[in-house]
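Quick one - inputs below.
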Amino acid sequence: MIALSVAAVLAIFLLYTSIAGGGNPSVSPSELRGRTGEMQLAGLVVGPVIGDAYAGGLRFRLRDIGGKSRVAVPVRYTGSVPDLFKIGRHIVVDGRLRQGTFVAEPGSMITKCPSKYAPKQSGDPA
Amino acid sequence: MTVALLLAALLAVTCVVVVALPFLREPEPESDSLDELDERDRRRLELLEARDRALSALKELEFDHRTGTISDDDYRTLVGPLRREAAHALQALERDSSQP
Amino acid sequence: MPELGRAALVVTLGLSVYALVAGAAAARLGRRRLALSAQNALTAAFFSTLIASAILLGALLGHDFSFKYVARTTSEALPTAYTISSFWGGQEGSLLLWLLVLTGFGAAAVRLNRGWARDLIVWVVPVFAAVAVFFAFLVVAVASPFATQPAPADGAGMTPSLQNPYMLAHPPLLYLGYVGLTVPFAFAAGALLSGRMDERWLVATRRWTLFAWTALGIGQLLGAHWAYVEVGWGGYYAWDPVENAALMPWLAATAFLHSVMIQEKRGMLRVWNVLLVILAFSLSLFGTFLTRSGVVNSIHSFTQSSIGPWFLAFIGLTVAFSVALVFWRLPLLRSPTKLESPVSREAAFLYNNLLLLALCLTILWGVVYPLLSEAVRGEAVVLGRSYYDFFLRAFGLPLLLLMGIGPLIAWRRASLRSLLTTFRWPTAVALSTGGLLLVLGAGSSVPGLIAYTFAAFVTATIVLEFVRGTRARKALGAGSWPGAFSSLIARNRRRYGGYVVHASIVLLAVGIAGSSAFDSVAEAKLARGQSMEIAGHTLTYLSLDERQSANATEIRATLEVTRGDRDLGTLKAGKNAYTIEQQVSNEVGIRSDPLTGEDLFVIAEQIDPDGSVYFRVFVKPLVNLIWIAGFVFVLGSAITLWPDAREQRKLVTRTREIGVPATR
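Output:
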């Protein structure tokens, strides 16, 4: 009886995650080219950082973390900017690629703190 | 630096002594075998546990009945089997004790 | 001094290896003195780890930057309290703390139980030693806290966001919890190895498990509070892998705490229990692995850490070894008792276990999904908040309801008639509460309304139990009502302590439901003098002030809060710009209403040069119940943990009856 329930429960997850989706592919800047749809972009913040996240959008670029790729994708971000955001930080944003610029979902930025062994979460996931 | 080395050596020696202590205290013991429960003791322990389980189930039923969680009817239905179980457990212990 | 620290850790490693080998040999061959020697080795390992820890602490307090670790995690200007907290703030130090607690718990658990469970302890020692060998190996060879360098003038300092009191309590509490789960695991493995599948391993570890579970729970609650007030994005839990890392073992441990009660009362679920404790322990290892290796937070690793593969290997080894052990001893574990009815207390506990486990596995699946999808599909897919929220409701709400049903339903078999009588009153209370709330507008969130209704149900059952119990106690001649109440609890600590813990979970559930299902949010860019509205409150931006503190520039916007025509005072929100660390932190303004438990939460998202501020404001109803629940939780656990003289006597009598000496 126990085994059956466990199996049933597991079946529910597998169904939910494969059909309902609810997940976004996580990519790095060098993998972005030509891709469409909602994605999660993870990268290193490269300057210059200009603009206003609450008026017109904050603009910066993202590069691969620890990779050899020199590709830097322009990002336009609106909404809540976590404290730890700055040039050189690793961040994650959700959004989609539009005409060469990655347009982020408002408020979807999450930053990681590389100096401590545990990542620091300070953005509100969409 | 040498102070550190000295202290480290002291630590190592102390630990070796602590570990060897049982052998140093009893260089020639009469018995070195572990106090283990033999087959007989283990069986008895199981019977004791069964007895304690049955008795505590009865106690809990009484408590639930007294507090009103279990109605009189349900109490009457449930108490019989529990009492029998407790009796069985006690009897099994008796039999076990009377064996050599 | 670092040499002494290194040496002390090598000694610990050596002692642990000895305890493992000698302990296993002693158990296998039945050698008393060798077994004792292995036990001593475990105790000695604690002391040498203590020496190493003292050296590291001394180096931290003395600002000895020749220690790489000290230079990396502290600076001259860092306040003493945070210098102490940096012991566990970095990789190497936290591993040392883990080892310290592990050897300490191991030595204590073995010493306390060796008098009456010698044949069990003899196998517990090598298991504990094995875990100690792993962690000792890590701090000796992979991540040593005693690496040295030519001392720089000053250290790198601590991230400002870690410089708060939470850093002093949150990690140590979590560690007490994680490491504490090693104790029931070691005893379970010891029992399996020795073939002694009687109840002694459960009896010996019950309080340890409870303590670990409480510490883990409070540690998480503190973490949530920290996220809420310090990180300040408006929430307290984000289903981040690091947060989930602690929740999973806690859920498994909760299931374990309940199912052992069934084993205790009915002798059932023996296989289930050992598997659960193995799961809880493995999850605690996995949890710390997740936090350290950064392997799931990104696809191309945010933190390069060499520690990950070691942990993974050890977890794999532990799981494989433990499962094999269970399979080997399966015949001994099987019990003849079967579940008599799907409507009984045993069944209720079983459903509770299944739901808790389901939730735990949901979270685990969510955490590893990115890794699995990357391996299978070539790209990492991350599951979002909606996935977790869905299953939290799907499994959490029935769990909430079960908390009210379980304690009142009869053992073995409950008749329909008895169900009707027992649950008549609580159901009435729940339905009328639900109806009332619906009228008051709680229908805006169906899961929230259900949560409230179920909470009312459970509260009614708990109150009923206390009232009935006190009344029965008084009828037995206990004197006054307060006297009856206290003697009721004193004589039935586990039962009524458990009810108090359940009450704390109800508070938690209500707090979570209120603040997530019925909250409001508003955003506006305000110039000085402008106002914004949210949920009946009016906030007027008055002024912007700047102030210099020891290590930061503090900018605060002052807002005036009114509700209707009532003046609720002022609120400040802003940012701190830390000069040395070149970082900015968010300082949120929170106004808690003492009567309703509601929070007005203000974030100054962006402060423009012209003085206008972009505000984000939340109104979170009942959120403070979550923190109050923490206190009630500790109270309930304390009652349950309290030493019971009568229980002790019963145990001693039992062991005497089989001829085991009660003391050494």
